[in-house]
Amino acid sequence: MLADALEHLVRGIVDNPDDVQVEAKNSRRGDVLEVRVHQDDLGRVIGRQGRTARALRTVVAALADGDAVRVDVVDTDRRR
């Protein structure tokens, strides 16, 4: 449910909503929601000084009802 809600919110922000992917993973410290968007939309999802990403994390934390959930915006174009 959290992944679907986050995906819906992110699709409303970006210019390429078909490229939005939210993947839920489990880790030792709780659930992790990884958000992947089109490279051109990365700045929109992060926002100025991270404000949009922080707001998305706040909404997801409120929906999680006390459970530990982390939201990561993944940069898919990063070369290693």
Automatic annotation (TrEMBL):
Alphabetized Pfam families for the sequence: KH_KhpA-B
Primary location class: cytoplasm
Subcellular location: Cytoplasm
Assigned keywords, A-Z: Cytoplasm, RNA-binding
Signal peptide: none
Transmembrane segments: none
Keyword Nucleotide-binding tagged: no
KW Zinc (keyword) present: no
Cited function: A probable RNA-binding protein.
Similarity field: Belongs to the KhpA RNA-binding protein family.
Name this polypeptide is given: RNA-binding protein KhpA
UniProt source species: Sinomonas terricola
Taxonomic lineage of the native organism: Bacteria, Bacillati, Actinomycetota, Actinomycetes, Micrococcales
Gene name, Swiss-Prot/TrEMBL: khpA
